[in-house]
Amino acid sequence: MSATGIITALIIGLIIGALGRLVVPGKQNIPIWLTMLIGVAAALLGTVLANALGVNNTRGVDWVELLFQVVLAAIGVALVAGIGSRRSVGRRY
């Protein structure tokens, strides 16, 4: 993978992760790098899912693939935010 491909994946991951965070209600106390990581993973998994279901080759914007990616990112953000909030409940500062 070239440097351009890595930078593109990070930018797409940030956008997908941010869209996933917007879908999840409430405040998520997770850092931006974790949002980006979740977004990159969701983008990759959403593409694989779209390929498996045969909806990856459409004209123009692949709305179904984008929907898969955002939904997967929202699920990932909700899971990570939920795990993080459970860990911090018992902490005293």
Question: Explain this structure to me?
Answer:
It is a single chain. By secondary structure, the protein is an all-alpha fold. It has one domain. Helix content is 75%, strand content 0%. The protein contains 3 helices and no strands. It has helices at residues 3-23, 32-53, 63-89. Helix 1 (3-23) packs across helix 3 (63-89) and helix 2 (32-53) crosses helix 3 (63-89). The longest helix is centred in the C-terminal third of the chain and has 27 residues, at 63-89. The radius of gyration is 15 Å and the shape is globular. The model has no long low-confidence stretch (mean pLDDT 82). Belongs to the UPF0410 family. Its main location: membrane. InterPro entries: Transgly_assoc. This is Transglycosylase. It is found in: Cell membrane.
Give the arrangement of secondary structure elements:
Blueprint: H1 3-23, H2 32-53, H3 63-89
Describe the structure concisely for a colleague.
This protein is 75% helix and 0% strand.
Output the keywords.
93 residues, mainly alpha, 3 helices, 75% helix, 0% strand, globular
Decide which structural class fits the backbone.
mainly alpha
- Determine the mean pLDDT: 82
What is the terminal-to-terminal distance? 44 Å
As for the number of domains, it is 1
Question: For the CA atoms, what is the radius of gyration?
Answer: 15 Å
What characteristic shape results from the CA principal axes?
globular
Estimate the strand proportion: under 5%
- Mind describing the biggest β-sheet? none
What is the percent of helical residues? Answer: over 70%
Total DSSP helices: 3
How many strands appear in the DSSP assignment?
0
Oligomer: single chain
Which stretches are poorly predicted, pLDDT < 50 over at least 5 residues?
A: none
- List the helices and strands in order: HHH
Protein name: Transglycosylase
GO cellular component, one term: plasma membrane
Membrane topology: Multi-pass membrane protein
Subcellular location: Cell membrane
